[in-house]
Design brief:
alpha/beta; TIM Barrel; 2 domains; eight-stranded parallel β-sheet; 43% helix
């Protein structure tokens, strides 16, 4: 439940079960984004009062993740976490070794995504690591709760990345999850400002997760041309790829994603090998670093339509919290006794 205090310290915090669980000032979590969740951004979000996340698989090995965790600790003394996305693969990364790197480095929060983390939960609990699992449906959220996760981050259809195959927007998904679960719910997808945060609280969430909005910050380790492309995009400038393959993803419209969509729509259908050369992670990484917007996929949510500047993380979080308080107060004023 959202609580706003009255002391000076309480006036500069937003207290929910998520802030208590994660030991943070504001219930705002940075999305664990491939190639983006590095120490520069994670530490800036944590220093600003949220929870920054390093992305485990951005690092080429578990040992490299250990070094990135150490580097992040030189930049912040606040809590931060690690995202570990678990996906089926013929040549899967050594997930267990990445998990050990998190535990042995003393990180106390992990965000899991993709497949169920149930095989890892007992070990994480034994080492006092809090687990926030990201999912795109209430049925998967309930399964995660039964498996023992501490909180669920629920992704609406407007999110960047993989929104699932049910196409349920946050306005429906968030209250369904909040009503169905006993553990705290974090709203994810379509949130970029205090308006969205206040709406998430009203729908029953106790925190928010933002990915695309944090890409357009000073500290995000992306080329400025990519950040400017996000600022210049409208809510209509994303599109869905991999629909025909049952693995829907939302990305920014560019030459590469246009070609992927055209290939998927051609007569006779599309196999993954037909688009493999277009969607490789290496191409996406190179686009983000070079600033060549048409060099690879750029993952982004419809929330780009609400991004119009590139602030520091500190400025962004302070602004979101102030807006959230204003919107909640205004909404409360509508409920006058007759």
């Amino acid at each position: 439940m959202f609580k706003s205090g009255t002391t000076q310290q309480e006036r500069t915090t937003l207290k929910t079960r998520i802030t208590d669980l994660l030991g943070i000032r504001y219930p705002i979590i940075q999305g664990g984004m491939q190639w983006v969740g590095r120490a520069e951004l994670a530490s800036a979000v944590s220093n600003a009062g949220g929870l920054g996340l390093l992305t485990a698989l951005t690092q080429p090995s578990p040992d490299a993740l250990v070094q990135e965790i150490k580097r992040c600790r030189t930049m912040t003394d606040k809590p931060f976490g690690v995202n570990l996305t678990i996906l089926p693969s013929v040549t899967a990364p050594p997930y267990a070794d990445y998990l050990d790197a998190v535990i042995e480095s003393g990180v106390k929060v992990i965000e899991t995504a993709g497949n169920s983390p149930k095989d890892f939960i007992e070990k994480l609990k034994r080492n006092d690591v809090k687990v926030v699992h990201k999912c795109t449906s209430v049925r998967h959220a309930l399964s995660a709760e039964r498996n023992g996760v501490d909180a669920v981050s629920i992704d609406g259809f407007d999110c960047a990345g993989h929104p699932g195959e049910d196409d349920v927007p946050g306005l429906v998904l968030i209250p369904l999850a909040a009503r169905s679960l006993k553990i705290p719910v974090v709203a994810s997808g379509g949130i970029a400002n205090g308006y969205g945060m206040a709406a998430a609280f009203a729908l029953g969430a106790e925190g928010v997760n933002m990915g695309t909005r944090f890409c357009a910050t000073v500290e995000a380790p992306l080329h400025d041309s990519i950040k400017q492309a996000l600022v210049g995009a409208s809510e209509c400038d994303t599109q869905l790829i991999f629909r025909s393959l049952g693995n829907t993803g939302r990305v920014l419209k560019n030459a590469v994603s246009n070609e992927v969509v055209a290939t998927e729509r051609r007569p006779g259908g599309c196999e993954f090998d037909d688009i493999r050369h277009l969607v490789s992670g290496r191409r996406g990484r190179d686009a983000l670093q070079s600033g060549e917007i048409n060099a690879g996929l750029v993952w982004a949510g419809q929330v780009v339509g609400m991004i119009d500047d590139i602030p520091t993380c500190e400025t962004l979080l302070a602004r979101i919290v102030a807006e959230c308080r204003e919107r909640l107060a205004m909404a409360s004023s509508f409920a006058v006794a007759l």
